[in-house]
Write a structure and sequence with these properties.
Shape: flat
Number of helices: 17
Helix content: 25-40%
Distance between the termini: 46 Å
Strand content: 5-15%
Structural class: alpha/beta
Number of strands: 19
């Protein structure tokens, strides 16, 4: 018989808002709502009881909620115009807040200076920006310091009461209440007074326990804000910003300069094309995404204007100096988006995480395909977890997916394109991808004999021929995809001589990081069984779905920790990627890629037998398309078999 976990009696948890570590949503706002210092399904454990009259007010942190404890950094993005600084600011903000729970705010120097209203480069504008940064850094936005909001010894507080008696009137435990951190601190001050608290409200030790704050400064119009002191466009301005932050010891914020250097003409032209598409609206952006982006012709007037402005800016701009005069500053030089990364005085966890993330991102188009596994036998029974095989309907989806992939992923806008495949280690995802073809394609078909392609120059008409398997007619192709990750393989000639490198389309890679959320003691149970046997646990999960951890299992926040390294690899790819995984994992990946707050992830719908295509680049917001391959629920019987007599609606043409 299955051994069931022991049912524990516990009070019902309060219904709290579901906003654990939300992320920044736009360029002029910080993370919406107050950040919680712990998952809300723990809140009932933090209340005073007769056995524990002086409870822990805040449990220890976990990485996904407070992974940057106490860190305060100001990141200043600098460099020549049209290098993608706003893109870097946005991606870095989403990454730090989504995966590490940091509070991040983006400061557009142009927008802040417009509100300041002073002359360009004036002290008034500079101090206005500094006050904005201080207001963000000093705002109390979490309850992480509540363990220090207790009376000092000798201030009238008596010893804890015994476990057999209720708290005495002299014992004034800290009680967890709903409301903002400011309200909770005010209540404690009203009870005890500032001088009686263990740590004074203004003590700088309090800042070291929050979830970490990062201010990111960038300019949408580098020309317009050149003279501003926070622009970092000269040694003098960078020195002023560094010294201003260093003088404010109470603020305790460290400054890092991130210089974006791009000297490759193809990257600059791609950025200009993406900007022009963004100006023409989202439809034009979507139609031009992918390899076809290199087909777009830039108006000569646009190119001349950019080159003229760039030359004028370059004559007065001063790059980060490596002659020793700025060796005391912390900085990163990002050269051609990860081709080369130079760091200086980048010590510490956050700083190295930033450097690592910056080394993999790039502004060229990303095309990501997300698919759940086909219906499994446990899906038919409504059971959680396990490692079941596919049902008959799931097997049919695997066959349909294999037909759909060559026509819709191998070819992007009619161009043969390198592409990749990831699955989890569970058999239902491996079986779903088992029929997808993996043709061996000569590297010459991708425009480069060594497998590392580069975009063509203007006016180039180079073509090569290749015929992949999968039923697509042979014709001449052009590809603009670059590949850094896969070492070349070689075709063998008639006499065993290695002729040329090749690429394996959809070469399958298996990652345990993509496995489904582990339900622990509840593996193999249905939601109805959990509700019946463990109603208190079921209610906690409904209240705090992202933070609730299955007994001896995982929570959504645990999944974030194992997805973090994979996201670094995903961001580095230039090739389209098909990712076959599970609902909980795909909810998080979808929310990250689409820029949604992570507390909304558990509510995202990831239907069976559907492929979700997400496209984004350095200038345009992410865009999704959904392809229903079927079988749909209407055509599946209760036992997982297919009802051949039912006509399915809304199915994508294979």
């Amino acid at each position: 018989r299955r051994r069931r976990p022991k049912k524990l009696a516990m009070p019902d948890p309060p219904a709290l808002p579901l906003d654990v570590g939300p992320m920044a949503s736009d360029a002029r706002s910080t993370s919406p709502g107050a950040q919680h210092a712990y998952v809300q399904s723990q809140s009932h454990l933090l209340k005073a009881t007769s056995d524990n009259p002086l409870p822990t007010a805040v449990p220890p942190p976990i990485a996904a909620v407070a992974g940057l404890l106490g860190v305060r950094h100001v990141l200043c993005l600098i460099g020549l115009p049209e290098r993608g600084k706003p893109f870097i600011a946005q991606r870095l903000s989403k990454y730090l807040s989504f995966f590490h729970g940091a509070e991040v705010k983006l400061f557009d120097v142009n927008e802040v200076m417009d509100r300041a209203g002073g002359p360009p480069g004036s002290d008034h504008n500079a101090m206005f920006m500094f006050e904005e940064i201080k207001a963000f850094m000093n705002a109390t936005s979490s309850a992480a310091d509540r363990n220090m909001t207790v009376p000092r010894a000798g201030s009238g507080r008596s010893a804890p009461a015994s476990s057999s008696s209720p708290p005495s009137p002299e014992v004034r435990p800290v009680v967890v209440r709903e409301g903002s951190a400011e309200v909770q601190l005010a209540e404690s001050l009203a009870t005890h007074g500032e001088e009686e608290l263990l740590v004074h409200p203004s003590d700088r030790r309090r800042k070291n326990v929050d979830s970490g704050k990062v201010a990111i400064l960038f300019a949408n119009d580098t020309f317009a804000c050149f003279k501003e002191k926070w622009s970092g466009t000269s040694k003098e301005r960078r020195r002023w910003a560094s010294e201003t932050l260093a003088k404010d010891r109470a603020l305790g914020a460290k400054l890092i300069f991130i210089e974006v250097i791009v000297d490759r003409a193809d990257i600059l032209e791609a950025n200009l094309r993406a900007r022009e598409r963004a100006k023409n609206g989202p439809t034009a952006s979507r139609e031009s995404a992918g390899p076809a982006m290199y087909e777009d012709e830039l108006p000569d007037e646009c190119l001349r204007e950019f080159e003229d402005r760039a030359r004028r800016f370059q004559r007065i701009y001063v790059s980060m100096q490596e002659d020793g005069s700025e060796d005391d500053l912390s900085y990163i030089k990002l050269i051609n988006y990860g081709d080369k990364v130079v760091t200086n005085r980048m010590h510490g966890y956050l700083r190295m995480r930033i450097a690592q993330f910056l080394s993999v991102i790039h502004p060229t188009p990303h095309v990501i395909y997300l698919s759940r596994h086909g219906q499994s036998e446990y899906n038919v029974l409504g059971k959680l977890g396990g490692n079941p095989p596919l049902s008959p309907a799931g097997q049919e989806y695997a066959r349909r997916l294999a037909q759909w992939v060559p026509r819709h992923i191998f070819y992007q806008h009619g161009v043969l394109t390198k592409c990749r495949l990831w699955t989890s280690s569970l058999q239902r995802t491996i079986l779903t991808a088992t029929h997808i073809p993996h043709p061996i394609v000569p590297a010459s078909s991708f425009d480069s004999p060594d497998g590392i392609s580069s975009p063509p120059r203007r006016g180039s008409h180079e073509t090569d021929a290749a015929t992949p398997s999968g039923g697509t007619p042979s014709h001449r192709f052009r590809s603009r995809q670059r590949s850094r990750q896969l070492p070349p393989r070689y075709l063998q000639g008639d006499e065993g001589v290695l002729n040329e490198p090749v690429w394996e389309q959809m070469s399958p890679r298996v990652y345990r990081n993509l496995d489904e959320i582990f339900a622990g003691e509840y593996e193999g149970m249905t939601y109805e069984e959990i509700q019946h046997s463990f109603p208190s646990e079921a209610k906690m999960r409904a209240t705090d779905k992202i933070g609730f951890r299955y007994p001896r299992g995982e929570s959504y926040l645990d999944i974030l920790a194992r997805l973090d390294p994979l996201v670094h690899e995903l961001e580095s790819y230039h090739e389209p990627l098909l990712l076959v995984s599970h609902q909980a994992v795909l909810r998080l990946l979808y929310s990250y890629l689409m820029g949604k707050p992570r507390h909304q992830a558990p509510k995202v719908e990831i239907p069976l037998h559907t492929v979700i295509r997400i496209t984004y680049d350095g200038w345009n917001p992410p865009y999704e398309e959904r392809f229903v391959l079927g079988p749909t629920a209407k055509g599946i019987r209760n036992d997982g078999t297919i009802d051949e007599g039912v006509l399915e609606d809304g199915q994508t043409n294979l």
